[in-house]
Amino acid sequence: MKYKNQKVLITGGSSGIGLALAKKFVENDNTVIIIGRNLSKLEKVKVENPKIHIFQIDVTDDAEVRMLVDDMDEKFDGIDILVNNAGIMNLIDAGNEENDLQKLLQEIDINYNSPIRLLHYFLPQLKQSENAILINVSSGLAYVTFSQAPIYSGTKSALHFWTQAIRPQLKPHHIKVVELLPPVVDTPLAHGADIAEDDNLKPMPTHKLVELFWKDFMKGKEEITPGISSQLRLMSRLAPKFIFKQLNKKPIPNK
Ligand SMILES: NC(=O)c1ccc[n+]([C@@H]2O[C@H](COP(=O)([O-])OP(=O)(O)OC[C@H]3O[C@@H](n4cnc5c(N)ncnc54)[C@H](OP(=O)(O)O)[C@@H]3O)[C@@H](O)[C@H]2O)c1
User: Fold this and answer.
1) Whose CA is nearest to atom 42 of ligand 1?
2) What is the pTM assigned to this prediction?
3) I need a labelling partner for 159 at 20 to 30 A (CA). Which of 55, 83, 106, 111 fits?
4) Whose alpha carbon is nearest atom 20 of ligand 1?
């Protein structure tokens, strides 16, 4: 695979892991396009990283995503690498009947439906690329459920299984499928969770995560499990009840 001079689209590239990945791809002489909802966040990235192209797009909005596909076609003659990274994590008490159903379902739409939507619309461009790669950013929590974020956990394991299912299907089309399953990483998303305060799960800095990702990515690894994610995978097989208990000492989020 080539890792230079590629056109890389990263969803949720205005913050955290997506932004760190965007900088790494730029450093390695790729053309990088990032998308996000919040324009001021995107513009700040542009000021600090003039080489990064920004587009204000909500990944859950079908019409906006279709416009993005046309834009990528016209401005860049298509993309080579699609990184499905945009995601949110809501701490939810499923026992609370006052939960806002729309908000509950929005998490599924961003974390799970949107990677499917993005692949669907970008498939023709990826098929045209000589170096097509789909990178899905799921989570170490795809291996072990995190009770405080029940919908998040469900979407990440669904994304993990979807990624595994489509890998052999996309192979005949020469689209390589890579999954990054990060551990707890120091980003705004993790700051909202009690889990980040647990000493055993000290958040990894974004630059460290990307360094580890890049090493495995260069080796051609398809399932990339930095830090504690590899232990979560192992423990989920060897001692699933034990690791579940370890991760879920506080199953209900603090009010
Ligand atoms: N941090 C962790 O501990 C951790 C661990 C495992 C996996 N992950 C995964 O890594 C990915 C990135 O998370 P992060 O920690 O870097 O979070 P983050 O810093 O909060 O960044 C999330 C990014 O997604 C964008 N986004 C959210 N909803 C969107 C939408 N509807 N349309 C377009 N963009 C959207 C955000 O921009 P706007 O808000 O402006 O739209 C932002 O750029 C997520 O999939 C997350 O689940 C994170």
Assistant:
1) 12
2) 0.97
3) 55
4) 189
The atom number, within ligand 1, closest to the CA of 182 reads 6
Q: State if residue 11 touches ligand 1 by the CB under 6 angstroms criterion.
A: yes
**7-247 is classed in which CATH architecture?**
3-Layer(aba) Sandwich (3.40)
How does DSSP assign the chain, residue by residue?
---SS-EEEEETTTSHHHHHHHHHHHHTT-EEEEEES-HHHHHHHHHH-TTSEEEE--TT-HHHHHHHHHHHHHHHSS-SEEEE---------TT-TT--HHHHHHHHIIIIIHHHHHHHHHHHHHHH-TT-EEEEE--GGGTS--TTSHHHHHHHHHHHHHHHHHHHHHGGGT-EEEEE---SBSSHHHHTSGGGGSGGGPPBPHHHHHHHHHHHHHHT-SEE-TTHHHHHHHHHHH-HHHHHHHHTSS-S---
Pick the atom of ligand 1 nearest to 111's CA. Answer: 45
For each of the chain's 255 residues, which pLDDT tens digit applies? Answer: 768 999 999 999 999 999 999 999 999 999 999 999 999 999 999 999 999 999 999 999 999 999 999 999 999 999 999 999 999 999 999 999 999 999 999 999 999 999 999 999 999 999 999 999 999 999 999 999 999 999 999 999 999 999 999 999 999 999 999 999 999 999 999 988 766 556 567 899 999 999 999 999 999 999 999 999 999 999 999 999 999 999 999 899 986
